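Bench notes, bay 3.
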Amino acid sequence: MSVKNDVVRITRWTGGQHPTLSSITRKMKDEGLRPYMWLNTPNHRYAVRTHGYDKVLYVVEGSVEVNFPDSNQRVTLRAGDRTDIPAGVRHGTIVGNSGARCVEASIARR
């Protein structure tokens, strides 16, 4: 999926075991990231926004729908799925019907 000449990457979970908070945060730390966890109630909406940094987001439990209004695309992330959103890409988020627990990290652009 391409937005504003920057690529939003979606990586689906392919591991045989259900992803855990510790396995995902370990994986992020191995990449040099500093992850933090957040959780939200069902159907919570985050307004469309941008960030001045690249964002990495994993869903640990539940689901999150991320929409990209500039490309009129949306994707639903489930447990273990990851998205990499470049700085400046407009995106909004809707938490799924069962809520969500996620881990994310920011990467400053150099």
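Next record in the batch:
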Amino acid sequence: MAQPAFEDIVADFAFLDDWEDRYRHLIDLGRAMPAMDAAVKVPATKVEGCASQVWLLPRLTPTQMGFAGDSDAMIVRGLIAVLHALYDGVPLDQVAKVDAGAELARLGLDQHLSAQRSNGVRAMVDRIRALAAG
């Protein structure tokens, strides 16, 4: 079972009738995220493999996953918000077991993202898993 915040997003997506509304909701999720300070948007936090500029800053506790994220693209900021909802608070030893592809498919994102954005999401998931692994 995914985190409650992710389940809320699944419910919201199920309620929305069409993909234009879902994209707007995704953008709203991105807008609601706090922006990262420019001082931490450095090569060490940049995610390679994304067409847009993407940064993930780890905020791990000794036992749980946490991160801040930002992007220069609004839809990508929304995708970061979705990944944050999926992974935030997950025990570090469970992060690699989260089937991000299956969870995102519940939102229909597997069928509605461009190949470039899908590759970017995979790169972000890989970074999140690497952060959790230490």
